[in-house]
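Sat 14:20. Reprocessing the chain from the morning session after the first attempt stalled halfway. Input below, unchanged.
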Amino acid sequence: QLQLVESGGGLVQPGGSLRLSCVASRFTLSFYSIGWFRQAPGKEREGVSCISSSDGSTQYSDSVKGRFTISRDNAKNTVYLQMNGLKAEDTGIYYCAARPLSCGQRVVDFGSWGQGTQVTVSS
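Finished this time. Tokens:
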């Protein structure tokens, strides 16, 4: 079974930065497209970004475009989400997820999920 573990979350002031990591085990991450999702209290889980397995192309939601950057290090079996210019509305639990095809945008497009890491943006 695919396993994903997120880390790097924490408390940061508005305008600050965090880098989230998603480490894969029991499978080769480069064969999968990896998405980042987030869920704020009382809200549905939403897609933030995705990086494709085939050509490394990336996608971002409008709310994070220009502030977040997704990347992968296949040698470390890890995908990163660099988050700059953080805002209070970026607060939530961030999850990474894998699917063996091209990037998807919906929660149901992904079959394997990590346990999540908390990001809190507050002064």
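The first strand starts at residue 3 and ends at 7.
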